[in-house]
Amino acid sequence: MVYLYRKLMGKKYYYYLRASKKNKNKQITKDIAYLGNSLIEAKKNLEGLGLKKEEIRKSYKKISLMLEKNYFLEKIKEQKLKHDEYLKDDLEEVEACKYHFSKNFKKLDSLTKEEIINNFSMDFAYNTTSIEGNTISLKEAKYLLEEGKTPANKDLREIYDLQNTQKVFLSIFKIKKKLSHKLIQEIHKDLLRHVDLRIGYRIHDVRVFKSNFDSSPGIYVKTDMELLLDWYEKNKKLLHPFVLATIFHHKFEKIHPFADGNGRTGRMLLNYILMQNNYPPVIISKIKRVEYLKNLSFCDAILLNETKKDYFKLVSFVAKESIASYWNFFL
Prior knowledge:
Layout: E1 2-9, E2 12-23, E3 26-36, H1 39-49, H2 60-77, H3 91-103, H4 110-131, H5 138-147, H6 156-172, H7 181-191, H8 221-235, H9 241-255, H10 262-276, H11 289-299, H12 308-329
Helix pairs in contact: 1-2, 2-3, 3-12, 4-5, 4-6, 6-10, 7-10, 8-9, 9-10, 9-12, 11-12
């Protein structure tokens, strides 16, 4: 196994590539390359070694990713950001993703950016629809969205569900409209095209399956959505954009303004708000579904006197999902 080793000498860190392997029940460790005394120097030296040393080829991508992440994290640490009571220890990593997104990703050539965004959109579509019960596998989803190959024995609704989700995601990557009732209902309508005819805010009561909260009564949905948009406008300059997007997401899900498609629409709006504020999009992973719903559920009892403590778990969860999905796709 080859890994990055950082040694502190005096007030400086020195970076090495270190190899470790077992030999007759003994763990043998040796340094195989000195990379320098700064992250940027280590990155350059690693690139030079990448194809020369056979023993590091398997670990090259992982080590390169670690150096890249740490380089941008160090740049953010230098800024000495003001503490945020919601994000706490996740703040610097969230900002490091944003910094890389603006400084590196956005400066790539258009074809490379398009390829990265398309790959992200397929994974986003698969995960966000799977959370709601779509049974199409990731492999089948990629064949469908990339090559137009329809998976066998799958309901047409599931196929449209995936296709619509990718299409809407790619559209919100570009639009610059103000968040409004009209935009929210347009996003919902496009997500449910050929999936569910019930569009627009509901006027009837609904019971959310396996939930422990009461959604807004049908007669109050429009009013509650008006209050939510007012809250959004009032808090745009008071809350960190990542916190704003996450709390908006929960409040939206609590209202549950549509007959169907609330989860998919809510996660799309979460990303819309992030991207409007120049933050990269996030994938809430299917495998984290239980934890995701548990964190949303934890916030359901919050009333008007909400505190930072009430939303900390949900914000932290979404932040960690954002950090993981960002470095997985945008590096």
